[in-house]
C-alpha cells in the first residue's frame, strides 16, 4: 500500500490527503477501501491521522457526538453494520467507544514519516499499520489504547515494536500529532474520514471517497 | 407523483416512508430525485413532512447544527453545491437559514391527507407541493414562511390557496404536524431526509436514498 521507490517529487499522479481518526467508525470502511480504489484511479494518497477530540472540544463536545446524541449513535452502529455486511468486513465494537486513539496516531505518524523519507522498497509500514489498527479496533474489537495491542500489530507487520513505541513517546512525536490536528482544523476538517484534494476541495465521510478520487483525477 | 386511483389496500408494492423537513438542505436533492427512482423500483412512497426543530431542541440545539458548527455549515453548502451541479439542479440560499418550515409542513400535510383519502385521478397535490416547496426554497431562494409564496406555489399546481391556507391554520392541522414530529422522534429519526422501510429499517440522508429503495424491494 505504500508507494516505496517513488519520491513525491517525481510523482505526477494527483494527490489526495486522507484525514482520519482511529476512533472514527466510518474511517474503518474508508481506510480498508481506499488503497485498491486509489491504485485503480492512479491517485497518490497521503495518510494523515489526527485527533478529533480537540476539534470536538472546541465545538463544546467532550466525547463523540454518537455518544452525546443516542439516536444518532444507534443509527451509526446500524448503518456501519450494513456497510460492513456489504463489504464483507467483520465488525465488532471496541471495549470502549470512542477508543482512545492517541497512541495509535503517534505510532502511525512515526511509520508514515519513515515512509515519506524512505527510498528503498518496503521501507514504509505506516499505511499498512493504519489499516491494521482499524481492523483490530473495529473488526476485532481490540483495545487500541493498549501498548501491547499496538506492539502486536507492529510485530505482525515485521516491525520491531520497542524502538517505535519509544519514538512515539518522545516530545517530538507528541508535537507532530498536535500539529497535524491543528492543521486539520485550520483547513476546515470537522469529522473523519475527510479527503482533501491538491486544489483544496474537502470531502467528508466514507460516502464521499469515490467522489474525492474522481475530483482528484479530473483536476489533474 | 401521486398514486391516484390505487388505494393503499390493494397496492402490493413495497412501501417507503420518506421523512423530511422543508428547512433541510439535503432533503432538496432527495425529494427531487425520489419520485422517478421510486417509480423505477416500483416502491410506494409515503411523504412525511415533520419538524426537526423540536427534535434538535431536545438535543440542546436551538437552531440548525449547520449554524451552530460553522465548519460543518460551510462544508454542507459546498457539498450541496457539488450535488446540485451533478444533478443539474439550481441552488440558491433562502433569505434566512434555516427557513421557518411550519407553514409549508402544515399545508403539505393537508395536501398529502387529501391524496391519501382520495380515489379519483389527480385528487392529490401533496407530493407535487412538497417538491415545489423545495425548488422554491433552495432552487430559487424564496421565503417559504411567507403565505404569499405558499399561495403562489399552490396556485401553480392548480389548487385554490385560500381554503387550503385556512385549513392549515386550524388546531387540527397544527396537532397533525405535532403528532407527525413526535412519531418521527419516537421511531428514531434525528435528521432529514430519513427513509423508513415497512420492516422498520432507517436510512438517513440523501446519500442513502438508493440503498433505502433497494432495501424496501429486497424485503418485499
From TrEMBL, chains A, B:
InterPro entries: DSBA-like_thioredoxin_dom (IPR001853), GST_Kappa/NadH (IPR051924), HCCAis_GSTk (IPR014440), NahD-like (IPR044087), Thioredoxin-like_sf (IPR036249)
EC number: 5.99.1.4
TM annotation in the entry: none
Domain DSBA-like thioredoxin: 16-211
Gene Ontology MF annotations: isomerase activity
Reactions catalysed: 2-hydroxychromene-2-carboxylate = (3E)-4-(2-hydroxyphenyl)-2-oxobut-3-enoate
Isomerase recorded as keyword: yes
Gene3D superfamilies in the cross-refs: Glutaredoxin
Protein keywords: Isomerase
Homology family: Belongs to the GST superfamily. NadH family.
Name this polypeptide is given: 2-hydroxychromene-2-carboxylate isomerase
Organism: Rhodoplanes tepidamans (Rhodoplanes cryptolactis)
